[in-house]
Amino acid sequence: MKAFILAAGLGTRLYPFTSDRPKALVELKGKTLLERAIRKVSELEVSEIIVNIHHFGDQIINYLKENRNFGFPVTISDERDQLLDTGGALLKAKRLLGDKEPFLLYNVDVLSSVNLSELLNFHNNNSGLATLSVRTRQTDRYLIFNSEMLLAGWRNKKTGEEKFSRTGTDLKDFANSGIQIIRPEIFPLITESGKFSLIQLYLRLAKTEEIYGYLDASDLWMDLGKPDQLKKAGKII
Asked: pLDDT digits over 185-202, tens only?
């Protein structure tokens, strides 16, 4: 199994930490977010880790080289010419991810205690195209799932905007965790190009395909995308 760490973002929410480095190389208690992400995804005994780069991309390449990839086979998906958002990043990495088995996608600015083996088991026990780790927590934007935990829509509670892919009763809102397992069968279904988001892709595909949600109730999940969240995480660890 391969893992894809999304590390190409500009990290604007983490400014001033990202004024001279990518967010992947911002440190939390002496370890970069990238090192923490690599060690987390390696819980699944991955055969290869793909890391996408854009903002200060050279620094990530040099950092991995200096640390000998922390002992893991690492391949770079280079977006230095154009930042492609999550969906565009996935499409660009198609050749690197292959077409043989599901792969793990993990946001570099996430700190989580989710049991990745349980997430993978849940995914393997269903026939879904993708499985998104979700949680019950406060946020502005929610994914909507039906009683079978199939993706049914999306809503922004701050603006009131809603998008639905499926109809049904007993719909529930959950927050996206930025951790997913995806089958390579998704690639022939992608008609988008250039810069686009995975959520945009999932909402379109959910009309005909099964996109599952895995409810993660583990002790810890944090978005490390802002300085105050980074500070809070430092107190918790």
From this structure: 999 999 999 999 999 999
DSSP string over the chain:
-EEEEE-----GGGTTGGGSS-GGG-EETTEEHHHHHHHHHGGG--SEEEEEE-TTHHHHHHHHHHTGGGGS-EEEEE-SS---HHHHHHHHTHHHH-SSS-EEEEETTEEE---HHHHHHHHHTS--SEEEEEE----SEEEEE-TT-BEEEEEETTT--EEES---SS-EEEEEEEEEEE-GGGGGG----SS--HHHHHHHHTTTS-EEEEE---S-EEE--SHHHHHHHHHH-
Write out the residue range of the structural domain in which residue 133 sits.
Answer: 2-236
Q: Residues in the chain with pLDDT < 70?
A: none
How many domains are there within the chain? 1
In this prediction, residue 127 carries a pLDDT of 87
Written as one letter, the residue type at 56 is: F
Q: What is the CATH number of the domain that holds 161?
A: 3.90.550.10
Query: Taking a C-beta distance cutoff of 8 angstroms, is the pair 54, 80 a contact?
Result: yes
Task: Quote the pTM value.
Answer: 0.96
> Nearest-CA neighbor of 119 among 53, 74, 178?
178
Q: pLDDT tens across 85-105, in order?
A: 999 999 999 999 999 999 999
Predicted pLDDT at 169: 80
Q: How far apart are the first and last CA of the chain?
A: 29
